[in-house]
Every structure is written in C-alpha cells, then in structure tokens.
Amino acid sequence: MAILEVKKLTKRFGGLIAVNDVSFSVDEGEIHGLIGPNGAGKSTTFKVIAGFLAPSSGDIVFRNTSIKGRKPFRIAKDGVVRTFQETTLFQELSVFENVLIGVHKEAKTDVFSAVLGLDRKRQVRASMDANQVIEFIGLSERKDQLAVELPLGFQRVLAIAVALASKPSLLLMDEPFAGMNPEETRHMMELTRKVRESGVTIVLVEHNMKAVMGLCDRLTVLNFGTVLADGTPEQVQNNPDVIQAYLGGA
Amino acid sequence: MNASVYRTAVLIAGLLIGLTILPHFLKYHQQDFLIFLTINILVVVSYRLVTLTGEWSLIHAVMMGVGAYTSALLSKNFDISFWITLPLAGVAAGTMAALLSYPLFRMTQFYFLIGSFATGEAIRLCWIQFIKPFGGTGGISAIPSPELLDIDFLEPIPYFYLVLIIVTICVFLLYRIEKSRIGLTLHAVHWKGVLAESVGVNTWNYRALAFIVGSLFVGIAGALKVHYIGTVAPKQFDIGFMVFILIWVIVGGYRTFYGAMLGAVVLSVLDEFLREVNQLRPAIYGITLIFFILYLSGGLERLPQKIGSIFRMRKQGNT
Amino acid sequence: MDLFIQTIVNGIIQSGFYALASIGLVLVFGVMRVVNFAHGELVMVGAYTVWLVHAQHGAPYLFTVVLAIILVTGIGLVMERFLFRPMMNDPLGGLICSIGVLFILQVIATYVGGEGPSKQVPPPFEGTMVIMDSIRIPYQRLFSICVSAAALVTLWYFLTRSTLGWAVRAVSMDREAAALQGISTVRISMVAIGVGAAMAGLAGALMAPLTNINPHMGHNVIITAFIVTIVGGIGSLPGAVIAAVLYALFHTFVTTYFSGTIATISGLLIMVLVLIVRPTGIMGHRVSE
Ligand SMILES: Nc1ncnc2c1ncn2[C@@H]1O[C@H](COP(=O)(O)OP(=O)(O)OP(=O)(O)O)[C@@H](O)[C@H]1O
Ligand SMILES: [Mg+2]
Fold it and tell me: Does residue C265 lie in a domain region?
C-alpha cells in the first residue's frame, strides 16, 4: 500500500524547472531510494514534499490525503519529517537537548501549565522518550556532549535522532552518508535498517551507490528534474538510459 | 545539583531581604531611583523573553506605554481601582502585541527591526496626535495612586515595596517560562528555525507567543511606573528609552537570564553617579555601548570568564 | 487652487532634502548591510557646521557648505574604519555601534551649541521669486533644490558611468559575487559611506537656513530616511529617489491639509504596509540572509 504518492509534481525557480512533472509512489515499510546526478532536483523534491517550498503544480498525497499547501510544522505533525543535506543541528545544545526538542508533539505545553508546573508528567515522559531515542540510535555515551563537539559522523546520526524523536511515519533522509568513511557508512547502514524495522518508511536521497544498492527496495532515478527510471535496484542498474545518463557518466 | 539550587535560593532570599531594608538607608531621591530601577528590571527581563527567538524588536518601550496609558486612562476617567487596572494594563499590551504580531511576524531580521520601529513610532505619534483621550505631547497627569488600607503610596518606601513584590512575582514567572519547555523551544526557533519547523514546531506561533507575553509584562511595568510619577507622556516611551533597554541587555549580556538585569543595575547605578555631568551622560552611554560591542560582546556576565582567560594566557606566556 | 499648486511646489522642494538625506542610508545599507542609525545625526552635524561657522562666525555660506560636506564625510569614514569594518559579520552589532555614535554626536552638538531653544540661520539668499502672482518660492529654497538635484545627478553619473560606481552597484547587488570578481569590498564600503555621508552633510548644510537646528533634529530625518528606503526598495537608489519625491509630495500635502503628525503616522503605516506586502519595496531586490 502506498504511504506517499507524488503526482505530477513541478517546481520552477523563475525560468529554471528544478522538478518537472515528477510522479512516484512509496510503499509503506520500504526504503525507497531517490537518486540522480547533482542538481537533478532531489533535495527540491524533498523540500516540496515537506512543505518548505510551495509546488508550482502537482499534488502530494500522504496516507490518501493531500498535504499540498500545508506548512512544514503541520506536515511534520502528520508524520512526514525530513533531514537536511547540510548538517543541521542545534549546535550549542547538548545531544540530549537536541533530541528533546525533537520530541515536540508530546512535550508541547502552554504558558499556564509551564509556569505552574502542571505539565511535569508530560515533560518527564518527553525526557524518557528522548533517552529512548538516544539509546536506540547509540548515542548514550555522548548524551551530554554539545552537538558542535561531535565528530561529523555522529552529527549525522544525531540529526536523524532529532528527526526520529518527532515520531515520523515517513522519514525523508537527504544524503546521510555524504563525507562518511567506510566504518561510519557501515554503521549508518545498520542504523537505517534498524529505523525501518521499527516501522518507519524511508525515502533516501544518496550518492553513495553501495549504500543505495544495499539498502533500497526500490529506486526512482531523477535527471534534470524528470523521472528517468523507476524499479528495483537490479532493474535500474540494467536500464540503458540510467547507465547512459548517470552510472555511465560517473 | 541540589547544593547549587540551595545556594541560589539563599542568594535570592538574601537579595530580597537586602532590598527590603535598603530603602531605609537611602535619601529621598535615591528611593525614587530604586523604584525606577526595580521597574526597569521587569522591562529588561520581559524584553529578554522577546529576544529569545532572535528577533530584536524596537517596539518594547511603546508596549510599556500601551500598558501605562491603559492604566492611566482607566483609573482616571473611569475611576477603576489600580488593582484592576494594573492587570488590565498587561492585558492591553498583550492584546496589542497579539494584533501586531500578524503584520510584524511576516517580517524577519532587519525587516522586523525596522517594521517594529515604524509601528511603535506610529502608535506613539497617535498619542501625540489624538489629544482626546491621550492628552497630546503633555500626556495625562494626576494619575491616582493605588489605594490599600491606610498605606500612603505617594511615599516612596511603601510604593517601593509594592513594586518589589509585583516585579519579583513577574520576574519569577518569566524565569519559569524560560526554563520550561517553552523556553527550550524558543531557543530552538532562534538557533535553527527550519530544523524546529521540521520536527513540528510552529515557529510563527512561538515568535508571537514570546512577543505577546513579553509585552504583557512590560505593560504591567508601564502601569507601575506612571502610577508612581502620576503623569504619562509619549516622551517616556520614545526610541531613546528603547535604546536604553537595548544597551542594558547588551552590556549585561543576553546569554543568561541574569545578564540583562545585571546590565540594568550596573548602568543605572553608574548613571546615578553621572548626575553631576548631566549633559555628558548620553555620550558616556554611547562610548560604553561601542566598547562593549567591540571588545566585550558577551556582556558583563562574561567578564569573569574573560578575565580568567587573560590570566591563563599570561601564565602560559610566562612559563 | 493656488494652495494646491503652492503645495506641489513645496513638496517638490522638500523632495530634494528627502532624497539627499536618504541616499546615504540606502548606499550604506546596500553595500555594507548595516543600518546606520546615526545617519540623521550626520545631517544634524552638517546643519550645525553652517550655524557655527557661517551664522556665528561670519564665514561665507558656500564655504561652510563645503566644510560641512568634508567634516561629515570624515565622520562617516571614521565610523566605517573603527566600527562598521570590525563589525562586518554582525549587522546588529553595526547598528548598535551606530546608536552609540548617535549619542556621542548629540552630546557634542549640545556642547557646541549649548542647550536652550533651537538655533536659526538667517537665509543667505534673501528674497522670494513670485510666479503667476501667487506661487512663491524663496530664493533660498530654489537654491537648495537646484543644488540637491545637481548632487543627485552627479551621483547618478558616478554610479552608472564610472568603474568605481559600477563596483559600488555590483557590491550592493551581491556582495559575495563581487568579492569573487576581485572587487575590494572594504574599499567600496569606504566609497559608499563617504558618498553617503557627503550627501548627508550637504543635506544638513542646505537645510540649515530653512529649519530649526537642535541636537535632536536627526530623529525626524532618520524616520523619513527609513520610510524612503523601505518604500523605495532597500538598496535601490532609483527607488529611493522616486520614493523621496512621492513621499515628499504626500507628506507636504497631508501636512498642509491635516497636520504634520498625521502625515508622519500615515508615512509610517505605508512603510509597514510595504514591509508586509512587498518587503523589497517598489524597486528593490531581496536581501540574501
Ligand atoms: N532556492 C533556489 N532558487 C533557485 N534555484 C534553485 C534553488 N534551489 C535549488 N535550485 C536549483 O534547482 C536545481 C535542483 O537542485 P537540488 O538541490 O534539488 O538538486 P539535488 O538533486 O539535490 O543535487 P545534489 O545532489 O547536488 O544535492 C539545481 O539546478 C539548483 O541550482
Ligand atoms: Mg541535494
């Protein structure tokens, strides 16, 4: 069953068409790869799905309702959460606080409860949730370190922890493997699988082919903003258009 | 952890007790000064809440005026008791902020700065223009002082106690807000708004919330001020006063809760000593401001740390 | 009807001041991304120079106009070197510094002129030109509008025809791209603030015989400059000039038929409206963050 359907999505920046009539669908529980050369429109597609950019035309359907035109925070509440291509964290806060901010849905409170401490139970639960996520992702030992002090690989992991803390049902990961060494790559692959096993559907934008081929159940290939191919990793790898435009060129 | 909470509690209790006896050792005009200083503490602490989201508004002084005018008009024209107009002053400023948040928070950063300045100035000019009911440039005078039992609130010492109690409560409430989940979310909105948004934080709401609550408290501060001096006028809330608020926060430091208070206290006391050279005062303020921005950008709160690091550098240099 | 035409004439004369006084703010913001809150005080210093050297000590008016330009340009350059340059990456810091300068200049003015009532400078050009029996233009005002217009045209020539002017426009369009092309942004910043301050000094000197001179006169100037800058489009010089003319006409009309305060209130509201609807103003381009 499709959890996300992208229908004839187009995004223009002035004269430039970054995403051109793109359609694909993501099934519940799968890891779906979205690949393509630099500038193909992958990040733009993510931003449009997550509501950070308004689409020029087309529709985005999540769990059978259109989420087009909703604000990013609203879409996140609905269960679609993105991570960022450039590492984006609350640099001056600790790992724990970063993840705690991610637990927003459950921890949200109003001024009165906050002042009077009526939300105490809820905040305790939020801290527990945050700790759980930190443990799940394997950052327990670095819980009190500041985000800025973490090595790059761990910063990437933390970014995913922040996203997971908001309990998404669909996670859009933008190049989580970029700049990672083989060791870190292996760890991240394990982690991605673990996230999927916990019941989160994943769309993965990535240039690291080893990771993509190892993880994804299905792939959509973009080139110059249009869909070039769609299918299993084997099908895509053997598609002559793809070899020509993408794998062959590399 | 517990030890530090204990220490803080002792410190605060000591401070409050000290403040309670302090006015009895002061001359009349110094008691006045103490009242204004205490009110200004509420002004800077409430401003701090607004700045937590990273937006430096230039309308805070005018919001104080909204509270002040509300309380003055209600108590003078409708004979409503101070004890009712005081909270209403907060409500009025908060409501005004809520209305303004629609246009203002469509702007960010530089645009917000200028937009808030323009809006504030427009409101202030309305007080000048519409002599009925605001009294024009001269404002409103003979604002009644509070009534309670037989206490004479025209005297500085009783009024100081009143101000001290209300300001302590308000500052405590603001502290609770900052240390709560809301404060954490405000920090998040400030440092990485897009990331906060991506995990479901409605950043617009939080920016508006900080603005509304901050304005509410400064509205109360405004009412406290004008019921003591007995007059309210547009001049009290002009860009000059706004700049003082900015200076207090910057000189004190905006990373910790106490930084802004520290700035207000230190600079106001300094200002008292500068009475002799009245004309020169703004220039000294100006130079202080530039000095802090250029050489001590963390504010006074960072001073111990800076001195410490200079010492360490010296030591390393020697060995 | 006469009043109507007379108001138009007054408005056009006013627009020269508005444009001159605003252009510096626009230039400095465009090139350096700093809001110079002390800009109004630069105009004030120009006016004080004329009052002190011309009205008090009898030096020729035109000489003091030049003196005012030089002095204010100097202040501008000092601000650039010692405040804005170190604060390059901190726009708020630059703004706060300029507030510091604002205080300092006001105090200096108070010291130089003493407290008390506003100063007046008797107009060096006496007499009034009368057109069609009813439209009156004092020669002093005629002189100032002509000089303002000449200054603006010169600036326009400089910005569009000279290499340096081209570089200024390139930097204010896109600072990073200009730096990549090898343009020295520091040098261009100096040019921008130098030219902007010179215009402010000139505006002050021209205004001096026509207005009340006091240490706080910069306040109204900066409000006007903000309105003109925002409505015209931040960083856009043609926008600023157009906005200056429109706003001067608008302000003069509302002042004549209603009151000066209402005119300023409406101006501010228009500015807020522009900020909401089209933050880039009528001719501006978006400021990258
Ligand atoms: N805000 C924007 N304004 C104008 N053009 C943009 C904007 N964002 C992206 N683009 C353009 O849209 C195209 C697609 O960009 P996008 O970032 O989606 O590519 P990508 O597939 O994520 O590439 P990469 O693998 O390098 O991250 C590019 O040509 C890019 O320059
Ligand atoms: Mg990308």
Answer: no
Nearest to B250 by CA among B238, B239, B266, B237: B266
Q: Is residue C5 part of a domain?
A: no
CB pairs under 8 A between B and C: 107
Say if residue B187 is in the same domain as residue B316.
no
Per-residue pLDDT of chain A (250 residues; tens, 9 = 90+): 788 999 999 999 888 899 999 999 999 999 999 998 888 899 999 999 999 999 999 999 999 899 988 999 999 999 999 999 888 888 888 999 999 998 988 778 888 888 888 888 888 888 899 999 999 988 888 888 898 888 888 899 999 999 999 999 999 999 998 888 888 899 899 999 999 999 999 999 998 888 888 899 999 998 888 888 888 888 888 888 877 776 555 4
Q: What is the pTM of this model?
A: 0.87
Is there a domain that residue C105 lies in? yes
Residue at which a domain ends, from B175, B204, B237? B237
Contact C103 B293 (CB under 8 A): no
Residue B147, sorted as left (phi over 0), alpha (psi -120 to 50) or beta, turns out to be: beta
Closest Cα in chain B to A122: B181
Positions of chain B with pLDDT lower than 70, given as ranges:
1-2, 153-154, 298-299, 301-302, 304, 306-319
ipTM of the complex: 0.86
Domain count, chain B: 2
**Cβ <8 Å between C102 and B109:** no
Is B191 in the same domain as B245?
no
Task: Quote the pLDDT of residue B295.
Answer: 79
Of B109, B113, B129, the CB nearest to C289: B109
Q: Which chain B residues touch C106 with a CB distance below 8 Å?
A: 282-283
- Quick: pLDDT tens for B171-185: 999 998 998 889 899
Which of B129, B285, B297 lies nearest to residue C265, judging by beta carbons? Answer: B129
**C-alpha pair distances (Å), B172 with each of A99, B167, B206, C245:** 27, 8, 20, 51
Mutation pick from A47, A115, A116, A129 vs chain B, by most beta carbons of B within 10 Å, is A115
* pLDDT of C286: 46
Question: Residue with the nearest Cα to atom 26 of ligand 1?
Answer: A38
Please list every protein residue whose CB sits less than 6 Å from any atom of ligand 1: A 13, 16, 18, 36, 38-44, 85
Q: Measured between CB atoms, which of C86, C226, C265 is closest to B126?
A: C265
Residue with tokens 């705690």: A100
Whether B256 contacts B52, CB under 8 Å: no
| Alpha carbons A116 and B60: distance in angstroms, whole number | 26
Q: Which of B203, B237, B271 is the last residue in one of the domains?
A: B237
Please give the distance, rounded to the nearest whole angstrom, from the Cα atom of residue A35 to the centre of ligand 2: 10
For chain C, what is the domain count?
1
Which chains reach chain A with 3 or more Cβ–Cβ distances below 8 angstroms? B
The closest residue, in CA terms, to atom 9 on ligand 1 is A44
Please name the residue whose Cα sits nearest to atom 5 of ligand 1. A13
B2 within domain boundaries: no
CA of A248 to the centre of ligand 2 (A): 20
Q: Which range marks the domain in which residue B248 is found?
A: 239-319
Residue B111 lies in a domain: yes
Q: Kindly state the greatest CA–CA separation across chain A.
A: 65
- Which residue ranges in chain C fall short of pLDDT 50? 286-289
What is residue A178's predicted lDDT score, i.e. its pLDDT?
A: 86
> Kindly report the CA angle at C195 between C190 and C196, in degrees rounded to 5?
100
Residue burial B210-225, b: 16+ Cβ < 10 Å; e: rest:
bbbbbbbbbbbbbbbb
Omega before B133 within 30 of 0, i.e. cis: yes
Supply φ then ψ for residue A174, to 5 degrees: -100, 105
Ligand 1 center from residue B10 Cα (angstroms) = 57
> Which of A48, A53, A73 would you mutate first to test chain B, the one with the most B CBs within 10 A?
A73
